């Protein structure tokens, strides 16, 4: 372990306590390392702008920070237990390579704003991915809604067959859902897109830090004005990001549930792409939908991470070390969540409907509601029409295509209004 930044002369730090304080933390900091280096570069530029560093010192720091980023990426620099955390590792490397310029980098900053800025940059990157995957999934669903608008499918309520619906309606629902999720990820990104660097330990510093410069250099949309609020917002913005991810994962969970049911022999409506199924170690006959089950389960990790952070936030204002645990929570949530979302577009692209079992499931009862509405259209008060249409003797096996076509604005196979969704998708580009 390199010297601790805060170690007092004559006080030895117990190894077990050190493990407890930093333990897995330094390893988690690998996720943030590239962003921490990027923010360090912007901070150094800011220090030069206010005269704390001269031009040569800045050039050296920029060169060494770039080299460190490359060494880290290439595996030549390993962030491990030799360091207390990623922040100390950066400083210690700069001191080792540059001497005084390295010793100056921490002027006017604290690990508290370092971790905040790295977290925000990391989350921005992940929210872009969430939005892109939701958008791509919506695109696939929308194309299939169009192509399969007239393919009948039972519509269920209470998991009981209810009315004639269509694959188009099923697809359009997921398309609209994932568009909403993409919008939410983007809106959350805008909300998270604020620069905390310069807030130091949570109370600012007695230097005119070039905060506007670091805001622009790091590509933030705005500055977090209040240093105290920058700290206070820790945990809160992570929760918001997890909720945006969770919104997509909630839709994915229900979609996966549909597919679990639809692929069972009892329904038999859907065949999954072969790569999305596995076998059993004992039952040679099995084709199991493990992939969609793990996609479904991923929401649990996201929800748990959100709860963990919410529990951590039971704190007065100011920095508290408790907040460190928010890192593991976001990594877990986005690791699982993005892992699941990544597989979604291809899954949707390659699902196959099985028309025979679907057709067989469209029993005459599914036309009862249409019948009641037809009678009402002819002038029978709906409540009376409803009673008449409740009589199974009046149910004939209807024509599913005609039933779908009747539920329309003139001219469309079903009133899916896909153009509205197409326009929303185009707005997301
Ligand atoms: N690992 C710490 C965290 O995530 C970094 C900040 C440390 N600050 C401190 N005052 N000990 O919160």
TrEMBL record:
Q: Name one GO molecular function term.
A: argininosuccinate lyase activity
Q: Which UniProt keywords apply?
A: Amino-acid biosynthesis, Arginine biosynthesis, Cytoplasm, Lyase
**Reactions mediated catalytically:** 2-(N(omega)-L-arginino)succinate = fumarate + L-arginine
Q: Which enzyme class? A: lyase
Q: What is its EC number?
A: 4.3.2.1
Q: Family per UniProt?
A: Belongs to the lyase 1 family. Argininosuccinate lyase subfamily. In the N-terminal section; belongs to the lyase 1 family. Argininosuccinate lyase subfamily.
**PANTHER family, from UniProt?**
ARGININOSUCCINATE LYASE (PTHR43814:SF1)
Mind telling me which HAMAP family this protein's record contains?
A: Arg_succ_lyase
Please identify the protein, giving its name as recorded: Argininosuccinate lyase
Q: What is the lineage of its organism?
A: Bacteria, Pseudomonadati, Pseudomonadota, Gammaproteobacteria, Lysobacterales
């Amino acid at each position: 372990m390199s010297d601790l930044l805060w170690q007092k002369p004559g006080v030895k730090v117990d190894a077990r306590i050190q493990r407890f304080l930093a333990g897995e933390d330094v390893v988690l900091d690998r996720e943030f390392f590239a962003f921490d280096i990027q923010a360090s570069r912007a901070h150094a530029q800011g220090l030069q702008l206010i005269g704390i560093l001269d031009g040569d010192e800045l050039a050296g720091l920029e060169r060494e920070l770039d080299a460190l980023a490359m060494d880290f990426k290439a595996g030549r620099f390993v962030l491990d237990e030799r360091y207390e955390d990623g922040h100390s590792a950066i400083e210690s490397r700069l001191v080792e390579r540059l001497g005084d310029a390295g010793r100056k980098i921490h002027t006017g900053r604290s690990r508290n704003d370092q971790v905040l800025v790295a977290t925000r940059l990391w989350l921005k990157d992940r929210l872009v991915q969430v939005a892109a995957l939701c958008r791509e999934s919506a695109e696939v669903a929308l194309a299939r809604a169009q192509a399969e608008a007239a393919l009948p499918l039972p519509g269920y309520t209470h998991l009981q067959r209810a009315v004639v619906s269509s694959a188009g309606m099923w697809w359009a629902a997921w398309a609209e859902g994932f568009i909403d999720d993409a919008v939410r990820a983007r809106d959350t990104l805008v909300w998270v897109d604020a620069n905390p660097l310069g807030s130091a330990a949570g109370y600012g510093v007695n230097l005119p830090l070039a905060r506007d410069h670091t805001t622009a250099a790091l590509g933030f949309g705005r500055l977090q004005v209040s240093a105290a609020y920058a700290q206070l917002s820790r945990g809160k913005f992570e929760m918001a990001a997890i909720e945006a991810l969770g919104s997509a994962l909630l839709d994915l969970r229900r979609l996966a549930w549909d597919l679990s049911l639809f692929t069972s022999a009892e329904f038999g409506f859907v065949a999954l792409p072969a790569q999305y199924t596995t076998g059993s170690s004992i039952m040679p006959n099995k084709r199991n939908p493990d992939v969609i089950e793990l996609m479904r389960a991923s929401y649990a990790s996201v929800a748990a991470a959100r709860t963990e952070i919410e529990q951590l936030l039971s704190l007065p204002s100011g920095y508290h070390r408790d907040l460190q645990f928010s890192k593991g929570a976001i990594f877990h949530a986005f690791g699982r969540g993005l892992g699941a979302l990544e597989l979604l577009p291809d899954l949707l692209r390659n699902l196959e409907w099985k028309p025979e079992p679907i057709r067989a499931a469209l029993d005459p009862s599914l036309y009862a509601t249409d019948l009641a509405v037809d009678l009402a259209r002819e002038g029978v008060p709906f409540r009376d029409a409803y009673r008449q249409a409740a009589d199974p003797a009046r149910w004939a096996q209807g024509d599913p295509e005609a039933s779908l076509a009747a539920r329309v604005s003139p001219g469309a196979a079903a009133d899916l209004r896909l153009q509205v969704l197409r326009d929303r998708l185009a707005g997301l580009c």
